[in-house]
Amino acid sequence: MSYEKELAAAKKAVSLAARLSQEVQKTLLQSQVWTKSDRSPVTAADYGSQAVVSLVLERELQPVKLSLLAEEETGDLRKKGSEVFLESITKLVKDTLASEESYASSPLSTEDVLNAIDRGKSEGGCRGCHWVLDPIDGTRGFVRGEQYAVGLALLVEGKVVLGVMACPNLPLASVVCETDKSFPETLGCLFFATTGLGTYMEPLQGNSPPQKVRVSSNENLEEAKFLESYHRPIPIHGSIAEKLGIKALPVRIDSQAKYAALSRGDAEIYLRFTLSGHREYIWDHAAGSIITTEAGGVVCDATGESLDFSNGKYLAHKTGIIVTTKKLKPLVLKAVRESMEEENLQF
Ligand SMILES: Nc1ncnc2c1ncn2[C@@H]1O[C@H](COP(=O)(O)O)[C@@H](OP(=O)(O)O)[C@H]1O
Ligand SMILES: [Mg+2]
Ligand SMILES: [Mg+2]
Ligand SMILES: [Mg+2]
Predict the structure, then answer these.
(1) What is the third-level CATH fold of 221-342?
(2) Phi, psi of 266 (to 5 degrees)
(3) How far is the centre of ligand 1, averaged over its atoms, from the C-alpha of 281 (Å)?
(4) N or C: which end of the chain has fewer CB within 10 A?
(5) Ordered per-residue pLDDT tens for the chain, 347 residues
(6) Ligand 1, CB cutoff 6 Å, lining residues
(7) 135 Cα nearest atom in ligand 1
(8) Burial of 163 per CB tally in 10 Å (0-12, 13-18, 19+)
(9) What pathway, per the record (predicted)?
(10) For the CA of 148, the nearest ligand
């Protein structure tokens, strides 16, 4: 089956959501960063992006009924005292949609915005078609003015068949190699992948045609680069890298931009073990995983098994997520096994 219509809708939705997020990031104040019940940060961009993607997908794909599983909920926005924040989100969504000619004249109330966000309550699963959205992935990076992503994927019968990811602050050139800082870098990339058709990247701004991307062909681990999350160092990552003979220090960036960077060969390995037994959400990996695998990479858990997106909002997987190239997978898994044994970690 071809997913041309779905891909076009997803690219439009994600591009508009990225535009909204860039507007917010330009003027974001610390006082505008809210804290959710799990103590993680959330901003007008997280809510606004989810509303935009929900509204655009619904309009572009009608009369098909949208099933959307997305990160944000409206509980806090519906509480007393949130009226000003909600008004500002509604204005953002309106202005963003108005920048797209075909949506220019649509009226939009705060209730429409709340309902659009609430459409993200699907439970996903192994039957039927479900869109999976992380409206702002890497909110901490977004708040610092650094890397973040808007990640949207389509699950069909429990498998990811399409992924689109905007990385508004990712350079078009490598994020890992030192570039000449005397020249302004071009920032903003849109990645997309459809099952069996490869992964493409295009600039978020302008009309340049998409380019097919592939993972690195480098097999020399001494020269390999590895990526990890920004927020805190995970000791086992260092031990795995040492066993592999990797010389360079890890490159730490927020969000699924790590998957995107690896898919175009910026780095060979992305390791994601957690300290606290945090359960992984499917929206943190759905778009990134197909963007990597369609570019010739592999995404698996510490036992080498592929990730399972068919069990609702949480990923069903064993300890650790490993993203690398097909050639390096056996070597990385061997180093992972040895490091886990040394640290008495169970699969
Ligand atoms: N303690 C923790 N361990 C692992 N992942 C966590 C975490 N707390 C939050 N996360 C998830 O990690 C995502 C960010 O990934 P990364 O660390 O690669 O930037 C967050 O996405 P959001 O920013 O969308 O909430 C959140 O879902
Ligand atoms: Mg996320
Ligand atoms: Mg998020
Ligand atoms: Mg979040």
Answers:
(1) D-Maltodextrin-Binding Protein; domain 2 (3.40.190)
(2) -65, -30
(3) 9
(4) N
(5) 789 999 999 999 999 999 999 999 999 988 899 999 989 999 999 999 999 999 999 999 999 999 999 999 999 999 999 999 999 999 999 999 999 888 877 789 999 999 999 999 999 999 999 999 999 999 999 999 999 999 999 999 999 999 999 999 999 988 887 655 666 678 999 999 999 999 999 999 988 999 999 999 999 999 999 999 998 889 999 999 999 999 999 999 999 999 999 999 999 999 999 877 789 999 999 999 999 999 999 999 999 999 999 999 999 877 899 999 999 999 999 999 999 999 888 77
(6) 40, 71, 134, 137-139, 229, 231, 254-255, 274, 276, 278, 281, 284
(7) 24
(8) buried
(9) Signal transduction; phosphatidylinositol signaling pathway
(10) 1
Residues 176, 157: contact at Cβ < 8 Å? no
**Entry pTM:** 0.96
CB 227 within 8 A of CB 250: yes
| Alpha-carbon span 12 to 264, nearest angstrom | 22
Active-site option among 43, 96, 139, 194: 139
Domain extent listing, the chain? 4-213, 221-342
Could you report the predicted ipTM of this complex, rounded to two decimals? 0.95
With the most atoms of ligand 1 within 8 angstroms of its CB, the residue from 255, 262, 271, 272 to mutate is 255
Residue whose C-alpha is closest to residue 46's, from 100, 89, 80: 89
Ligand 3 centre from 137 Cα, in Å? 4
First-to-last C-alpha distance (Å) of the chain: 36
